[in-house]
Design brief:
The chain is of the alpha/beta class. Helix 6 links the parallel strand 4 and strand 5.
Length: 183
């Protein structure tokens, strides 16, 4: 039993991801010393950040054999043209996964008020990115549970209709019941 448990833990550890800000990534030149090749590194987009830093950080991650998963914040995209430019630059670096989020901006700076508006625009269907979307087992301060579940249903339908590879990512929690109840 100990050997089987150890093997399961090894598999879990090898598939683990980490989140590092662009500032952390760009300030470090030895990430490959700390992270195994192929590790997924989520790159958040923080309020008042520059997306150019996100793109540069993704390039640095790819250069050392890590797999960047940048946040693509709907509310921070000023126009469809800007979104297209960001997507093309990420694709040129070899990025193949995005974490699509609404973003923490209170008001959108462009046409996308949330993730659903971004998906409905068709912008993402032009590119072969796999898309991560947020799940909220412990709730969200700006949406009730039925609204969150309806949004996940719409995103699932989008993935099926467009044949987009999609997964759900959640924040970590210390109470397993919140996850099992949500699932």
């Amino acid at each position: 039993a100990d050997t089987a448990c150890r093997e399961e833990l090894d598999v879990l550890a090898r598939s683990a991801s980490i989140e590092l800000t662009p500032r952390q990534i760009l300030a470090t030149d030895d990430l490959s010393r700390w992270l195994a090749p192929g590790t997924a590194v989520y790159v958040p987009f923080l309020p008042k950040a520059r997306y150019d830093d996100t793109i540069e950080a993704c390039g640095q991650l790819r250069a050392v054999g890590l797999n960047p998963v940048p946040h693509f914040p709907a509310r921070a995209v000023a126009s469809a043209g800007q979104g297209q430019e960001w997507l093309e630059r990420l694709g040129a670096l070899g990025v193949d996964k995005l974490m699509v989020i609404a973003g923490d901006n209170g008001d959108p700076v462009g046409p996308f008020k949330d993730t659903l508006a971004l998906l409905e625009s068709g912008l993402l269907t032009r590119y072969p990115f796999a898309l991560g979307v947020a799940g909220h087992p412990e709730g969200h301060p700006s949406a009730d549970h039925p609204s969150l579940m309806q949004a996940l249903q719409i995103k699932r339908d989008y993935a099926a209709t467009t044949r987009t590879r999609m997964w759900v990512t959640t924040q970590f929690a210390f109470e397993a019941d919140s996850f099992t109840d949500w699932l």
